[in-house]
Amino acid sequence: MDNHVDACSKPPEWGLSSETVGVRYPLSQLFAHAACTYPDRIALSDGRRTYTFGDLELRARRVAYALQQAGVGPASHVAVLTENNAFVPILSAAIWKLGAVYAPVDSKTPARRLQNILHELEPAAILGPTSALEKLPDSRSLLDLAELEQRSTSSAVPEVLEAPLVDETMVAYVIFTSGSTGSPKGVMISHRSLLDYFSAHNAVLQFTERSRVFSVAPYHFDVSIEDTFLPLSLGAYVYRFGGAPVGALLRSLLEREKTTHLIAVSTLLELITEDARDISQARFPDLSMVMTGAEVCPPKVINAWLERFAALRVINAYGPTETTIVCMTYQIHRPEPGRTESYPIGQALRGVHWLLAGPDDTFIRSPGTTGELWIGGSQVMLGYLKRPAETARALTVVDGTLYYRTGDLCRLDERDNLVFVSRMDDEIKLAGRRIHLEEVRQAFLRCAGVDRVAAGLIETASGPAIGAVLVSRADNDVFGALGDALADLPSYMAPRILGRAAAVSLSSSGKADERQLLSALQVALQRQPNCRQFLLLADGTFTPTGDLDRHA
After folding, report:
1. For residue 364, what are the domain limits?
2. Assigned domain for 29 exists
3. Which pLDDT score, from 0 to 100, does residue 445 have?
4. Can you say whether the dihedral through the CA atoms of 483, 486, 491, 492 is positive or negative?
5. Is 334 helix (H, G, I), strand (E, B) or coil?
6. What gap in Å lies between CA 175 and CA 217, rounded to an integer?
7. What's the whole-number mean pLDDT along residues 210-234?
8. Please, are residues 286 and 259 in contact by the beta-carbon 8 Å criterion?
9. Dihedral sign for Cα atoms in the order 227, 230, 234, 238
C-alpha cells in the first residue's frame, strides 16, 4: 500500500493498526510530523548533545544521504555499534529512510562475539566509534560515528530525499539475543510488527507531545525503541541517560528533567528506589507513570512508589524480544504491604493473542494450572536470521495465527491475569538482560582441560550474579587459563563466582548435578563472602582458593 502521508497535515497515526482501514506513517517519517509542526522545540538531549525536532529530521536526511552514497539501499543490513548518546536515534531514522534494516550492537561487544554477529548480518555498512571500528579486520564499508555526526551538521543534502515505499512485511530491525546453541541469534522484526506495537503499547503508555521521558535502556536492548524512538515520534521530549547508573544521580536527573514517564528494568528501578527515602511526589511532581519489567520486580520496590504518590500509574510489563518489545502489561493500582509474590504480567496488548500450552500442546483454560505461554499475532517476529531450524522450533501456527513459544511457564489467576512462574530452560534475566546459560558454558568449554560446566545464578552480598563450576580432570591451573573465555563474554555474562571440581558423576542431562554443584558453591560463598574462587573437596564442599578479579 502507499504509506506516504503529509507530515504537516496530521499527527502520526501510530494509533492505526495494520487491520485498520486507512493510511499510517511509515518508519521513514519517524520524526517528520514533529519536525514540521514544532521544528524549534527541544526533542532530545543526553547532557552533551541537544537536538530540536527540526535537527533530528534534517540530520537524519543528511545521514541517509551519506549512507546511500556508501551503498546502503532497501533491505540492506546496517550494523550500528552503539554508544549511549543522543545521536543514535538519528542513525536509525536515516536507515529507515532508505528502507534498510537497523541492527544495533553494543560497541563494547567482545571481538569474537562481534565477528560472529557481523558474519551473520553481512551488513552493507558498519557504523561505530573509531575505537570499535579499529578492531574489525573487515573490508566492508566502515563509517566512523564522529565523521557521520559532523556530516549531519554541515553536509549538503538533496532538497527531497525520496524514501522508498517499504512493504510492511519487510524487516525493520534485527536485535541479537543470547542463544540456546551457545551463540547470539538475530531476531528479525518487521515494519508491521513495530508499527502495530507503537499503536498498541501507546494506548497503555499514553505518550503525548507534552510528555517528558527519561530513557535509560541501551540501544542494543529493544526497550530503547520503547523509551526513545516511540516518544520522539509523537513529539515528546526524551532525556537520554548514558552515564554510570548511580541512584542519587538518577534521582537528581529525574527531578531536573521534570520527568513524566520513567521506564526502567527492575534492577535499575531498585537502584533508583534504594531505601525509598528520596522518592516522593513532592520531589517528582510531574511524574505520572513508572513502568518496569524485563525481570521479576520485588513487590516492595513497586509498593514504595505507590505509597508515596497519590495518582502514579505503576505498570508491570512483559515481552520477549521475539514478540516486539512488550506484549503484556498489568497496572498496579494500590500498594500491598507484605506482599511477597511477584505481581502479574497481566493482559495482552490490543491485537496480541496468547495461549497456555500444557502437556502434548493441549491448551489450558482454567485458573491455577501452569503451562508454557505462547504469544500470537502481528507482533510476532519474522524469525531468527539465517536460522531456519531454530525458527521452526520457536514458531507454530494455531487456527491460522502465528505463535511464538516463549519458554516461560505461566498460570492464569482468578481475575484472568497471567502470572509468570519460571523458565522451562536455562535462560535467565539479569539486570534486565536476557542470558542463555549455554553461551556461558560454551565459552568455558573452549578452555583446555575443562570437561563440563555448571552455570546458574548465585546470590551474593550485592545481589544475584552468575556463578560457574568448571569440571576438570586436568592438573593444570584451570583458573589461570580463563582469560580467553572471560574475554569472549560481554561483561554482564561473565561469571563472578567460580568453582572447580574433579570429574563427577553426571546424569544424562546434567541438570541434577549442576544444581548440586551450584548449591554447594552457594553455601561456600555464604561462608566466605569475599572469595570468588573455590575448589570442591572430597566431602562435596567447596574451599576458597583465590580471587577471580585477577583473571578478568
Report:
1. 342-423
2. no
3. 76
4. negative
5. coil
6. 14
7. 94
8. yes
9. positive
Helix (H) or strand (E) run with residue 138 in it: none
26-37: pLDDT as tens digits = 899 899 889 999
Mean pLDDT of 421-446: 76
- Segment 325-382, tens digit of pLDDT: 999 999 999 998 888 888 999 999 999 999 999 988 889 888 989 999 999 999 999 9
Residues 6+ apart with CB under 8 A from 226: 201, 205, 217, 263, 325, 326
Report the pLDDT averaged over residues 203-224.
93
> Across 395-519, where does the E strand assignment appear?
395-398, 401-412, 418-423, 427-430, 433-436, 452-460, 463-471, 497-501
Q: Which three cell numbers stand for residue 120?
A: 551473520
Query: Distance (Å, rounded) from C-alpha 87 to C-alpha 148?
Result: 10
- Residue ending a domain, choose from 134, 166, 198: 166
Phi, psi (degrees; rounded to nearest 5) at 290: -125, 125
| pLDDT tier for residue 92 given thresholds of 50, 70 and 90 | very high
Q: Is the pTM of this model over 0.90?
A: no
Amino acid type, 514: E
With contact defined as beta carbons under 8 Å apart, do 429 and 436 qualify? no
Q: Look-up: residue for cell 497519590? A: 310
Three-state SS for 89?
helix
CATH number for the domain spanning 494: value is: 3.30.300.30
